[in-house]
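During the reporting period the student researcher (J.K.) took over the structure-prediction task from the postdoctoral fellow and processed the backlog of single-chain submissions. One of the processed entries is reproduced below for the supervisory committee.
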Amino acid sequence: METLKNKVILVTGASRGIGAAVAHKLAAAGAKVIINYAGGQEAAEQTVTSIKQQGGAAIALQADVSKADEVKAMFDAAIAHYGHIDVLVNNAGIMITKLLKDTTDEDFTRQFDINVRGTFNTMREAATKLADNGSVINFSTANNRIMLPTYSTYSATKSAVEQLTRVFSKEVGARGINVNSVSPGPTNTELFMKGKPQEVIDRLASLSPFNRLGEPEDIAKVVVFLASDDAKWISAQNIGISGAMA
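J.K. obtained the following structure tokens:
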């Protein structure tokens, strides 16, 4: 069922992992998708090709979301191509896991630049360029509740994203735009699994009564719902997608 037919949806950081899964699911529901990437052009183009092979519509646009001028250019290029943007999905983000005492100034700045400034930059463009009755879906994290060591700065960035989400919903609601965030728990992606010994993965999986990590598809299904008209009365909310981990 094409619940997103005729909707144009911009997904940041969508070349791989959760972002790519979200893009595929949105396209399968009938949306025309803009795959944003910062440096992974090849992966982004592969995602576009895969979506098209499955009968969907997609283009790839490069932009570092932490840079306002690149975000503006991306919005303008997307609108020039599709005519409008209905939904913004802010998936782009980085995670640097270190004990707080070992976190450098560079670690701190980089995470806030991409996770917070990047979300701010795209929402600022969306404030005037997103179509009426559109939707914004930001990515937070279940780590805000799980409180795992080494995630302090990352969690701080996502707490900021949740507050941006709530206040922005009040600012654009008059145009029929609903704004929410989602909070995935540990998820089986290449980026998350890289460098983790099996015992750590098993321990994280055991935090859920389902005794498994989340899968990108688990996250994508919720994003598709929030992007649909069925979710229009949901706004200023943070939706946990963590299998009861938090």
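The committee noted the following: The chain has one domain: 8-228.
J.K. will present the remaining backlog at the next meeting.
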